[in-house]
């Protein structure tokens, strides 16, 4: 029998089948390497089999030795069907190909991006400059109008986000090393079981860029320390900066100067995240956590945005420049009314904060465009939030956070992604300790195996995917920070204070230590707080009738109610895991 070689099938006949996946190496912790295996497209392999079958058939047709006339006639009939048969084979192949691709896409967990701003309020207009972010995330998904931090300060709040735990469980008390911020105790304990490690085990490609924890890289572990769970690590050493900073890049020191093109930190985070998306392996899901410095001080905007919002001033409504006469002593000490110098300062800070956020708005737009271009947008959850709120003149406090009031504990939260219907405004309270379990829920982790105090809110924004419950009460807690000696510029104040301004108005103190029960449901909107000080001071607010918390109604409340709130607070302050979610 004579054999005949057929011309190879042209590539155009399978151009709509999935492209070949090439080998891609991703650095992992230690000496591990994740690798995407090179493989031929499904349709190419099927067509190769069909081509081999056709070659055999044609060879038989063209060979006359030992063949009967009937056989030749059968062969000619078969040969006549080949032009019709091959398109059918192609169609069958590519249907199989498309089905296989769809099955593979369905099997791959969704990608996740978490964007964490620094000190961005929501009550005082902090989201106003972010028109692109609101359109691309909020309008395209869900906006949570009752999102809270469980502690209004950077390091303990970020530690709660990473662990899904209240501060009394992860034990990070404030921004200092002695307050357990990025300490060896933190690294060996709570950080070792933070959510990035679980995502890593789920085969996520993980990327971090931005501010991590305020004391990271400054002492314990230095820049060579990379927390577990991260494939790519681009972390700021210390607190937020826009220029002249140091990064730990996968454990190696990288210094930056004051060139906008090379060093502006928000843009650097954006550019490196886009590069990561280009270099990723398409076979595995990815997780990016991007933590820009904005709108934290020193409020250095990109050059093109430094003249924006020239006429904007801090809002003068609500509790602005109101005397905190019935509040904790720290709120009773500011000068009231505020001097013109303080007003000028806080108005300038307010404008600059907005200016810095415009670069974050650009970041969101570029990320969404990149996800569209690599055809991953529809399979990616994008979260946007902040570590805590902020105040600018409320109760005559110039600028800061750390206080128990709504302006400091409420944060922006918007999410878009698979299963989330657009233009949703959700009322149920969500906490920053809920972020970790929600991310793990999306990734497929069994939440019963994870030690978290929070709960997934995937059911709230995508009820078609999950069932869930809404918590009736939650805890807000903070440990005050102070200096052991008196500030020489303010000798009359004595020791124990910190964050003091030139006019001797201080934003924090050792005994600015409090815990609050926050009740928010269809029947109640209440806050009950106790201070750990010599006064055993209590503040209670009915936010239905007093949304700006102008009147402390503690002395007007029924003693039975106060006792019940005290007992609820005691339970919350000692809760762990399930017991934090079960308190009614």
From TrEMBL:
Does the entry feature the keyword Lipid metabolism, yes or no? no
- Which residues are recorded as modified (3-oxoalanine (Cys))? 154
Q: How is it modified after translation?
A: The conversion to 3-oxoalanine (also known as C-formylglycine, FGly), of a serine or cysteine residue in prokaryotes and of a cysteine residue in eukaryotes, is critical for catalytic activity.
Any idea where the Sulfatase N-terminal domain is?
110-445
Q: Which UniProt keywords apply?
A: Glycoprotein, Hydrolase, Signal
Pfam families the UniProt entry points to: Sulfatase (PF00884)
Question: What is one GO biological process annotated to this record?
Answer: glycosaminoglycan metabolic process
The family note in this entry says: Belongs to the sulfatase family.
Q: What is this protein called?
A: Sulfatase N-terminal domain-containing protein
């Amino acid at each position: 029998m004579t054999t005949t070689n057929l011309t190879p099938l042209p590539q155009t006949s399978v151009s709509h089948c999935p492209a070949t996946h090439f080998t891609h190496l991703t650095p992992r912790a230690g000496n591990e390497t994740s690798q995407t295996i090179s493989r031929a497209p499904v349709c190419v392999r099927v067509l190769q089999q069909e081509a081999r079958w056709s070659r055999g058939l044609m060879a038989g047709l063209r060979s006359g030795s030992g063949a009967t006339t009937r056989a030749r006639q059968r062969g000619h009939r078969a040969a006549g069907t080949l032009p019709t048969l091959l398109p059918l084979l192609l169609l069958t192949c590519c249907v199989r190909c498309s089905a296989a691709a769809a099955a593979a896409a369905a099997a791959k967990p969704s990608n996740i991006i978490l964007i964490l701003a620094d000190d961005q309020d929501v009550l005082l207009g902090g989201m106003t400059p972010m028109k692109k972010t609101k359109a691309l995330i909020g309008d395209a998904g869900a906006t949570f109008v009752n999102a809270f931090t469980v502690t209004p300060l950077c390091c303990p709040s970020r530690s709660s986000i990473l662990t899904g735990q209240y501060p009394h469980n992860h034990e990070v008390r404030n921004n200092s090393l002695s307050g357990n911020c990025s300490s060896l105790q933190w690294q060996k304990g709570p950080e070792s079981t933070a959510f990035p490690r679980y995502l890593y085990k789920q085969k996520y490609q993980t990327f971090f860029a931005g501010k991590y924890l305020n004391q990271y890289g400054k002492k314990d572990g230095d820049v060579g320390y990379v927390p577990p769970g991260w494939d790519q690590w681009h972390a700021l050493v210390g607190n937020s900066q826009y220029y002249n900073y140091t990064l730990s890049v996968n454990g190696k020191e990288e210094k930056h100067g004051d060139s906008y093109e090379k060093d502006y930190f928000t843009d650097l985070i954006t550019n490196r995240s886009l590069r990561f998306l280009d270099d990723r392996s398409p076979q595995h899901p990815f997780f990016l956590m991007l933590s820009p410095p904005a709108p934290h001080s020193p409020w250095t905007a990109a050059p093109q945005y430094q003249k924006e919002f020239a006429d904007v001033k801090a809002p003068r409504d609500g509790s602005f420049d109101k005397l905190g006469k019935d509040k904790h002593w720290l709120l009773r000490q500011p000068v009231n009314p505020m001097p013109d110098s303080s007003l000028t300062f806080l108005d300038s800070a307010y404008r600059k904060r907005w200016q810095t956020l415009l670069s974050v708005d650009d970041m969101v737009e570029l990320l969404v465009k990149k996800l569209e271009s690599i055809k991953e947008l529809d399979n990616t959850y994008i979260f946007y939030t902040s570590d805590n709120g902020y105040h600018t003149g409320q109760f005559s406090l110039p600028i800061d956070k750390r206080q128990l009031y709504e302006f400091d504990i409420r944060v922006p939260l918007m999410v878009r992604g698979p299963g989330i219907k657009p233009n949703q405004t959700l009322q149920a309270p969500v906490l920053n300790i809920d972020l970790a379990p929600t991310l793990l829920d999306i990734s497929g982790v069994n939440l019963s195996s994870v030690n978290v105090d929070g709960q997934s809110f995937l059911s709230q924004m995508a009820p078609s995917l999950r069932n869930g419950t809404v918590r009736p009460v939650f805890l807000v807690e903070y440990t005050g920070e102070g200096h052991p000696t008196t500030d020489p510029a303010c000798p009359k104040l004595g020791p124990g204070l910190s964050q003091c301004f030139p006019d001797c108005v201080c934003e924090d103190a050792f005994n600015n230590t409090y815990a609050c029960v926050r009740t928010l449901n269809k029947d109640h909107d209440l806050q009950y707080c106790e201070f750990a000080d010599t006064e055993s001071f209590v503040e209670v607010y009915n936010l239905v009738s007093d949304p700006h918390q102008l009147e402390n109604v503690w002395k007007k409340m029924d003693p039975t109610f106060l006792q019940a709130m005290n007992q609820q607070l005691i339970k919350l302050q000692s809760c762990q895991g399930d017991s934090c979610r079960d308190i009614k």
